[in-house]
Amino acid sequence: MKNIKWEKVWGVVWSYLVFIAVTTIMIWPQLKIGVFTSGADAFFHSARFYDAAMQIHNHNFSFFQSNYGFQQSGRVINALYGPGFAYLNGLILLMVKTWFNYQILTDYLICLLGAGTMMCLLQYVEINKPLSVLLSILYINIGMIPSYINSHTFNGWGQAWMPLVLLCGVRMIKDKKKPINWIQLMVVMSVIIQIHILSTLMAVVLLIPFFIICLCIHRNDKKIWIDLSKAILGTICLTANVWGAYLALYSSNRLATPDAYDLRLGGVQLSGYKGYVGTYGTVSGHILPLMLFLIILQFIFIIRNFKQNLVNTTVTIYGLLILGVASIYFPWGVVQRIFPFTESLFQFPYRLIVIAYPLLILGIGLTIRLNFIQVNWEKYISILFIGLVLIESIVSTVRTTRYFSSYHTVSTTVQRVSRDRDLSKIFDNKVYGRQSDYLSVSKDYVPGKMNTLYRKKVIKKHKNYKHFVDHNCLILKWNVKSSKKVTLPLVMYSQSELIVNGKHFNGKKNPIGNPIISQRKGTNSAILSFKIPLYFYALLWITIVSWVILLIFGLYKVGLKFKK
To answer: Which pLDDT score, from 0 to 100, does residue 277 have?
Structure first.
């Protein structure tokens, strides 16, 4: 203990204490009222994590088939939507016991992760600690992180992790000796793949220009391609469960896409100070006036000092380009006419701020470090202005949190059961999972009609049946007074196997995969299971072993550093 340098320890600790304090201010209205905020995506993700939690609790693991969540219909969700992160959230949910506790804890975790990764990026480019902390606090109050706090928008986790992706990109330009640290790049990309696939695609887009510049700087350097190949191969091993699930399902099923939205309406736009509370902060892609003014000042500076610093110029120009594409002024109407699939694949252009904001925050920090840190009056003016932007963003976040925590947005029933230790009660009086995402659909698939069909055949009917789970099988039982045909509130895929009253089902299914069976008078039963391809078990073990090896290697490195 005498050899520990407490000054260095405090140098790390104080910044996170500040982040905890700021996060408390951000979510204070929710803490004060004590409510589970239920935004647009809250119950979709709650159902995912509840399913994972119950699998862990009951030791009934089913990687593909949802036996506990989504009306116990057997839908495949988690396997295609951040499976590793889903089980981690399920474990957290079991530990904290209630939905309210879970939401508060994850609010702190996403803010600490976002601020911590941004501070790590800023200090990598040698920006001093106080300024790094200030910009990191600003970062968690703009973009999709506040949207996660209020409406569980999952891109928030992508934004929280994105500074580390950008760090890998900056390293490609800044580090002359080792532009690609393949272990670092492998881990960063593997984690984001296990969290959110769409954020993964954005991470790839973020890295492309940095890699091109890297190739231009290090011409004919084979080591770059060797290190990149190592990173790709390692990522494939660490995420074999993810791409293996996509391979298994998409190779033999036609899966429903997410709902389509008009891209012209989902771009970033200027936030106002009056009117509907959705215009405050960054909910639904609004940008604050002072934040926009700060970005404009950064752009003017880069134009006047274009050749001063390659990293600053690159991140600023690229960040502005992405922000422009994400705005309502980009011709998204033309894009969706030429490429109709973007309406469902991308849905909301403002999601691109997940990569625009890390770029721009880094550029602002570099501008201050390179130009104003030695000149007192310019230094203080720049810090003061960033402080004003920070105050604007925090106030905006608090106001938005207050709105989403209010009684007219969250029912009293949800407020009450969010503190109940029976985690299933929160779904009793809430219709959720109405979207037809990832259902195995017929050729005449029409998204709007499929949603309606799922609502009629599953959501409204599932309470008429008794559900049981035996190992990885889902069992339905029901009693009727007469024999007739009925559509079961179950979802089938090409790998699904259904046994109805002791006989294998090979009959007709409706357009979303609900089996149409002939029930008999009296007691009926149906057993649904999912046949996992043998090769997927091999891929799953590759993933598990790869993470174990990585963990052992990481602990060994940490041990060596601690010993020194």
So the answer is: 39
